[in-house]
Amino acid sequence: MEKFHQKPITFVGEVSINVLDLNKAILFYQEIIGLQVLKKTDRKAVLTTDGKTPLLTLEQPADVIPKEGRTTGLYHFALLLPTRADLSIFLRHLLQTKYPFGAADHEVSEALYITDPDGNGIEVYSDRPSTDWRWAGGEVEMGTDPLDGNDLLRESDGEWSKLPAGTLMGHIHLHVADLRKTEEFYMQGLGFAVVNRYGGALFTSTGGYHHHIGLNTWNGVGAPAPKENSVGLNWYTLVYADEEARNKVTEQLKGIGAVVTEEAGFFAVTDPSGNEIHLVV
Question: pTM to 2 decimals?
């Protein structure tokens, strides 16, 4: 596991999504994805892989409605496994459960794609060594090629039980309404760098990662934000190195006209497409 998800690099820490039925969702995330419940109330469950760090929060609003089509919001959140062997074991598990999935080789990583029962997108992936990534003109080369599943399966014959404790929230990929406004917000406001542009999408990161945040207009330029009680993204966290780094970012955000509010333990801001971000240290 390389050092793209620890301070001083800014990275995605936790994601919160709405689901239609909390208990059904918990079952899916335990049995198919391999997360564990850290804490649970009637309408909320916090999931983890190491028994202490929140990774994914599931919420069931009282008046929840199904996922709306053609809106901004979550495209997928991506769970980064520590090793390729872990991804091999997870692939075998998906084949054994017969749960439908997609797959791709992105050159920088190998990825499996799953949709939860409510339509929330999930990627489970492992990175290739960063020394093998190809950069040109400040951009990293990424593609979408067929995954060599047989080769991946040969990597390990280990038995699946759950996601390994070292699993991280590797990145998040969002639907947005306008790439120009989005680029200004994430670059000049949040302090990310564009590391790849591809067909209506921006891939952004800090510290030379292939991407911590993907942003696309594939649901249509000008797509509306979903209703608050809709299945989909509630918020995600960005982890900053310290108070000083976060304060610098909040000033940058205010400088481009974004509204930053102080909550208990974090600052909150909403991107131009309505995606809520919690800035934490």
Answer: 0.98
